[in-house]
Amino acid sequence: MTTVTxxxxxxxxxxxxxxxxAEWGFSAAVGDVLFDAGQTGFAAENARKLGVGPxxxxxxxxxxxxxxxxxxxxxxxxxxxYCHPAAFExxxxxxxxxxxxxxxxxxxxxxxxTTHTDPVEVAPGIHTLGExxxxxxxxxxxxxxxxxxxxxxxxxxxxxxLVVVGADGISLVLGCCHAGLRNTVVHAEAVFxxxxxxxxxxxxxxxxxxxxxxxxxxxxxxxxxxxxPTHCTSHQARQILHEEFGDTFERVxxxxxxxx
Length: 260
Known about the structure:
The protein has helices spanning 42-50, 65-68, 72-75, 104-108, 181-192, 210-221, 235-245, and strands at 3-8, 27-30, 33-35, 57-59, 80-83, 91-93, 96-97, 112-115, 120-123, 126-128, 143-145, 151-153, 161-166, 169-174, 196-202, 224-230, 257-259.
């Protein structure tokens, strides 16, 4: 059994242990793998308080600051880092940079970097999903620079998830799901030819249209046994997911553990 420990999220799950931090961002320990690093050093501080780590393997879900800026405290113990090559692109929201604030060369000076678009097994039973095809609408955000330095819409093609293989199916751990929740689920099912038991992490369900949210939640409920949303899931989407999933909906925050 693999345990997910939420190291950073938008809220803290409870009053123990004392001193846990929350922030806009996401980071989780998935077994012995670090998945994302939040936007400050709080993820590393929380990991110490929770007795989790150090991590030899790091996976980045995508290249936005709220998942990557907290990397430095983790790099001293790390031996390898996996991400999509587009995670290093310059990304913007208006004039504000929202991409990873570290050059690839700086990270490569400290840890072995593997960029990939196909699934990769990064630890026994834990796989990165790689670049996700998009049959359904996605959740693209901001702009990126093309090869000539011009700003164009960013589809966040670097968005990927972790897949944890269990005895009776697979589970998904999401960073922000810019590729779209349905696209991610469908691709994972196709790659691993297994049913999905649990989805945990940032779903990017943030539409102002409750009917659109409910349509996605109903679709998910027909394919997945348990949902554990974090980070970029709106309050309205959480409520709708709770109504759809009932007892198999779990509310979590920094400090929570989820057994897969």
